[in-house]
Amino acid sequence: MEQTAHVCMTGPNALEIARKAGLEFCGKDYFFTQARWDALQETLKLKAAGEDNDDPARRHGTVGAVACDSEGNLAAATSTGGWTGKAAGRIGDTPMIGAGTYADNATCAVSGTGHGEIFIRWTAASEIAARMRYAGESLEQAAKHVVMVDLAENDGSGGVIAVDREGNITLPFNSEGMYRGFVRAGEEAVTAIYR
Ligand code: ASP
């Protein structure tokens, strides 16, 4: 974003730009974990047998962060391996600003995890900001509606972590659990998995 006129790039030239910018690169081995490899083998086996297993714990692996500084500046970041067994070339919600990741100082910062295709169709992250901006909803109301109604009623399992410029935090999810945590300056960190 700082070195080209663009905000989103993919493919060989994105790699080239990252190399030129001096980003650290690593081999494929760096990304290998036994648990994810096993999950992929299991998914491929199920697919070959014509079965579909919808266990999100096996299908997904995403980490996100949102932050609010002392001046109310908001930021969001999300990183993912995507969806186990996805087609080559599939782009999920994570790098799509407005779908799985969004931050706007006027409203909130959001990072999502879950069924990316549905997050994209409902532009989940920016929809939370839009509900705050245009309908005057609080962060909690807006995020709850998007996760528990828009996503949940449309096969969009998952959740979001979000913070607004006053430092309000919400972490709604419609799945069985979501690894999550938050911390405020000078306070103890809080972590949870299930409700
Ligand atoms: N949302 C991610 C994707 O669909 C997956 C995940 O959150 O686990 O690519």
Could you explain how this protein is built, in words?
This protein has 195 residues and is of the alpha+beta class. It has a domain at 59-192: 4-Layer Sandwich (Glutamine Phosphoribosylpyrophosphate, subunit 1, domain 1). It has helices spanning 12-20, 34-48, 56-59, 116-121, 124-135, 139-151, and strands at 60-68, 74-83, 101-103, 108-114, 158-164, 169-170, 180-182, 190-192. The strands form three sheets. It has a four-stranded antiparallel β-sheet with strand order 3-4-5-6, covered by helices on one side. The protein starts with 11 loop residues before the first helix and ends with a strand. The protein binds aspartic acid. Residues 60-62, 80, 82-83, 92-94, 100, 113-114, 116 line the site of aspartic acid.
Break the fold down into its secondary structure elements and pairings.
Blueprint: H1 12-20, H2 34-48, H3 56-59, E1 60-68, E2 74-83, E3 101-103, E4 108-114, H4 116-121, H5 124-135, H6 139-151, E5 158-164, E6 169-170, E7 180-182, E8 190-192
Antiparallel strand pairs: 1-2, 3-4, 4-5, 5-6, 7-8
Helix pairs in contact: 5-6
The chain binds aspartic acid.
